[in-house]
Inverse folding.
């Protein structure tokens, strides 16, 4: 995530605005105002929260206090804009952009896309729901991955035509393994 969108704020800290989409459909608009070395004021969808956030090591381990609750999240960068957050036994992926990235993505919505669906974590493929040449809609499930005794649907963000299926039912995959490649080109160049 680019911190270039940071701008001075009245408290002398830096105010950063992010747009966050959580795996599963929730979306948030978040403003983060740094008020001390590890202290922040976070405004999430209009709700103001005081927080402390401190890196414990260089491996993605953090100590966080949000309001009156303490957390020990592990944060792994899946790619430039996708983060895997793990707290205890729960893990989820978030897609975060700052104001400049959001504006660029809105402009890019009119540009042809190629989409690579990745395994968000290690697991076993229990179902592949597409074949080469299939048309996939945005949000459509293409692969079901079993990890930590839970079945996770891997869905297309933008949709398109299946160019390649790089996995099969019963296959073990690692986190970030490529599963399916999509493009927005039609089969017959309609």
């Amino acid at each position: 995530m680019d911190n270039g969108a940071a701008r001075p704020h009245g408290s002398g800290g830096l105010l950063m605005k992010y747009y966050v989409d959580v795996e599963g459909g929730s979306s948030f608009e978040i403003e983060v105002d740094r008020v001390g070395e590890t202290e922040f004021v976070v405004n999430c969808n209009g709700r103001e929260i005081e927080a402390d956030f401190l890196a414990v090591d260089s491996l993605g381990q953090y100590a966080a206090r949000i309001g009156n609750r303490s957390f020990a999240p592990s944060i792994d960068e899946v790619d430039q804009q996708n983060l895997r957050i793990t707290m205890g036994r729960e893990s989820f992926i978030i897609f975060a952009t700052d104001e400049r990235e959001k504006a660029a993505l809105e402009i890019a919505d009119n540009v042809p896309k190629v989409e690579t669906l990745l395994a968000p974590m290690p697991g076993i493929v229990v179902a592949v729901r597409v074949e080469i040449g299939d048309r996939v809609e945005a949000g459509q499930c293409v692969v079901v991955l079993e990890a930590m005794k839970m079945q996770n649907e891997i869905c297309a963000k933008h949709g398109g035509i299946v160019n390649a299926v790089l996995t099969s039912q019963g296959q073990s995959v690692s986190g970030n393994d490529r599963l399916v490649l999509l493009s927005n080109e039609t089969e017959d160049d309609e």
Remarks:
- Confidence is low (pLDDT under 50) at residues 1-12, 186-190.
